[in-house]
Amino acid sequence: MRKAFICPTKYVQGQDELLNLGYFIKVFGDSALLIAHKDDIERVKDKLDSTAKKFGVTFVESNFKGECSREEVARLQELAKNNKCACTIGLGGGKAIDTAKCVAQGDNLIIVPTIAATDAPTSHSAVLYTPDGAFDDYAYFKQSPSVVLVDTTVIAKAPTRFLVSGMGDALSTYFEARATASSYSNVNAGLPCGYREGLCGEAKGTNTALALAKLCYETLINDGVKAKVSSDCNLVTPALENIIETNILLSGLGFESGGLAAAHAIHDGLTILEGTHKYFHGEKVAFGTIAQLVLENAPKEEIEEVLEFCLQVGLPVCLEDIGVETITEEELKEVAEKACIKEESIYSMPFPINVDEVAAAIITADSIGKNYKNR
């Protein structure tokens, strides 16, 4: 059996760690292309100026346009070439991070997340969009980022909703990895650069990935509520440090090397409903996780533990919590059909899947969540 595990070369997390960014740039050279939204640069400008001076490095600002599109990637690659940049930095949220991955093509890449809202920073994949924001394609690279540098002081000062959304994304990690392991399905870690050209991309998850995914869930249960309070106070505590690591590292390694299953597929289906558009990825994944547990007929105690956690930290437990006040049978079928397209991760579940069963799981999860919330 072929197995695969993928991870960043180096992960560093700590208070004011951004002050050490220049040290990691120096590993590659004296200049770096900085891909970041102007607001994110402004948030950390003092630290960027300090690290540049201390280590004698130069940031080439990119005037990032905010969308990870082929056109923007080509423009930034030309900018990096013309300025002889030794490495690429993706600083900020998901779009800047994914753009940096595409520009770097797997080489000399430093990721500096300023929020802990998703597990994207550690992965070797990115999502491409058209210039007007429509989905284009997925991209996979030969390796994960060279360095993931996490400044917990910066993340502590970000709105708490981002941290909670990251917990929603991380919440699915163990349950999806568990399902993938049970079904012996392939994981993203097996996808090399050139996958679409026919190179071998099939690989199962490792025991290491499943163990990390389990630790991801356990840490959420133990420290999630305490971390939310810390974030509300904009303070770094051991609990917040643990949840930042959980949202970014444990969830990132868990999803890419452990696998995705129904929770993310149901999230993808829910995105066709206009009411969900103002909600974050992790918020919708949290509800998708509950729906997956219903779909697999998980023990009542396990479902209630997940529901209790969601309510304590402020994650959705029913459709109205993600902007869906009502849903018609036609809309429900469309959601379930999108969740069940042939490319979706829902087929990593360890049993046959059909549209009617997915639709039933969504409505049942909605009812269970409402009843638990109103008990």
UniProtKB/TrEMBL annotation:
Binds 1 zinc ion per subunit. Pathway: Polyol metabolism; glycerol fermentation; glycerone phosphate from glycerol (oxidative route): step 1/2. NAD(+) binds at residues 94-98, 123, 129. Its EC number is 1.1.1.6. The keyword Signal does not apply. One of its GO terms (molecular function) is metal ion binding. This is Glycerol dehydrogenase.
